[in-house]
């Protein structure tokens, strides 16, 4: 394990730091750059601002790997409430949930029932639910749950990670069934037999998968192919390819994290592309942010660059 990774993990678990670091003004300011606030109201308020700028919002409550499946009851109720609020305020927004926040660590059946309960409310509100993809050890169970949900509901999408060697095989069945796909490069530390170790190979696979997504019969609205990347070169390649193949701007979308590549987001909206921005909220941000950074130390540079560049 690299020194950087060890240090970040130590910081994420250190009790003194967990209590004190989040209170430091410059840390809060740095985090505010990537999170409008800790409460769901902060995120909903920002969603309204984004909507005003022509950008859709993806809302996600921080937290994963529940200690007890009973804790998932509150998570389900929370997301159902958020979906109700999105409808009552007529926001252009969806929720995105982590399967381990719904009990996947404990039991696939529990995760399935919890996700179905959220998807059902979303269907009644004419909205969709996106499912995040976590470490590679969860991919089989996550796809299994998503496919089972699709047997009963149409309003479901899932994230696929281009760094995984298996993703080319996972994508076909999802597209055939009209399940929305959000394509990312992947954020976790994975062994080389599971994930492409070099950025060059990940980028090449991302583009190959993006081409397949563009060719797929388009799912509509928020379920249309979503290219979740801040990589301006990749964004341009995808736009050029779509243009050359006559794939209209309404048939795909770009997604980015709150606070990153704001200028690119604005430019894409101005040029007629669909853009959605993911807003994280919740009190669990300190360990969450550090663990995310530790899982892929390259992301430290990613965050630092954004702080400097704005
Ligand atoms: C909406 C959304 C949802 C996601 N969901 C998941 C998920 O469910 N599971 C998962 O594993 N991962 C998820 N991710 C994270 C994703 O896997 C990547 O770790 C993350 O997006 C970084 O990869 P990248 O493609 O943006 O760019 P990278 O390959 O890291 O960087 C490529 C280039 O992009 C530009 N760039 C990148 N970051 C910045 C920055 N901070 N400021 C300015 N320019 C920058 C630079 O030009 C850089 O050279 C999600 C990301 C988004 C945006």
SSE topology sketch:
Elements: H1 3-13, H2 15-20, H3 25-32, H4 40-52, E1 56-61, H5 72-88, E2 93-97, H6 108-124, E3 129-131, H7 139-152, E4 156-161, H8 167-176, E5 180-184, H9 199-215, E6 226-228, H10 232-244, E7 253-257, H11 262-270, E8 274-281, H12 285-295, H13 298-309
Parallel strand pairs: 1-2, 1-8, 2-3, 3-4, 4-5, 5-6, 6-7, 7-8
Bound molecules: flavin-adenine dinucleotide.
Flavin-adenine dinucleotide is lined by residues 58, 132-133, 159, 161, 184-188, 228-232, 255-257, 260-261, 278, 302, 305-306, 309.
Attribute tags:
alpha/beta, 310 residues, 13 helices, TIM Barrel, 8 strands, binds flavin-adenine dinucleotide, eight-stranded parallel beta barrel
Task: Provide an overview of this structure.
It is built from 13 helices and eight strands. With 310 residues, it is of the alpha/beta class. The chain has an eight-stranded parallel β-barrel, surrounded by seven helices. The protein starts with a helix and ends with a helix. The mean pLDDT is 90. Residues 58, 132-133, 159, 161, 184-188, 228-232, 255-257, 260-261, 278, 302, 305-306, 309 line the site of flavin-adenine dinucleotide.
Globally, the shape reads globular
> What ligand molecules are bound, each kind once?
flavin-adenine dinucleotide
Q: Low-confidence spans: pLDDT under 50, at least 5 residues?
A: none
Termini gap:
31 Å
Number of domains: 1
Strand order of the largest sheet: 1-2-3-4-5-6-7-8
* Biggest sheet details: 8 strands, parallel, barrel
**CATH C-level:** Alpha Beta
Assign the CATH architecture: Alpha-Beta Barrel
Extended strand count: 8
């Amino acid at each position: 394990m690299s020194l950087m990774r060890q240090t970040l993990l130590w910081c994420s678990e250190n009790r003194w730091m967990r209590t004190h670091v989040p209170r430091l003004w410059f840390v809060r300011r740095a985090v505010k750059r990537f999170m409008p606030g800790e409460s769901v109201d902060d995120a909903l308020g920002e969603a309204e601002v984004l909507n005003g700028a022509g950008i859709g919002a993806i809302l996600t409550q921080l937290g994963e790997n529940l200690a007890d499946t009973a804790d998932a009851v509150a998570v389900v109720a929370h997301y159902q409430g958020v979906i109700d609020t999105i409808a009552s305020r007529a926001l252009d927004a969806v929720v995105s949930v982590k399967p381990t926040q719904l009990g996947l660590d404990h039991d696939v059946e529990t995760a399935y029932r919890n996700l179905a309960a959220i998807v059902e409310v979303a269907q009644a509100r004419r909205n969709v639910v996106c499912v995040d993809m976590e470490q590679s050890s969860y991919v089989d169970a996550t796809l299994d749950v998503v496919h089972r949900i699709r047997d009963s509901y149409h309003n479901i999408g899932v994230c696929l990670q281009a760094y995984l060697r298996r993703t080319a095989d996972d994508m076909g069945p999802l597209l055939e069934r009209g399940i929305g796909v959000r394509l990312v490069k992947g954020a976790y530390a994975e062994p080389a037999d599971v994930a492409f170790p070099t950025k060059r190979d990940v980028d090449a696979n991302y583009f190959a998968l993006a081409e397949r997504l563009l060719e797929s019969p388009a799912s509509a609205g928020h379920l249309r192919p979503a290219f979740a990347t801040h990589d301006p070169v990749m964004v341009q390649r995808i736009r050029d390819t779509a243009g050359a193949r006559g794939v209209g701007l309404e048939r795909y979308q770009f997604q980015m994290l709150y606070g990153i590549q704001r200028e690119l987001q604005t430019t894409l909206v101005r040029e007629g592309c669909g853009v959605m921005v993911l807003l994280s909220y919740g009190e669990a941000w300190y360990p969450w942010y550090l663990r995310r950074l530790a899982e892929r130390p390259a992301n430290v540079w990613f965050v630092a660059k954004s702080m400097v560049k704005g």
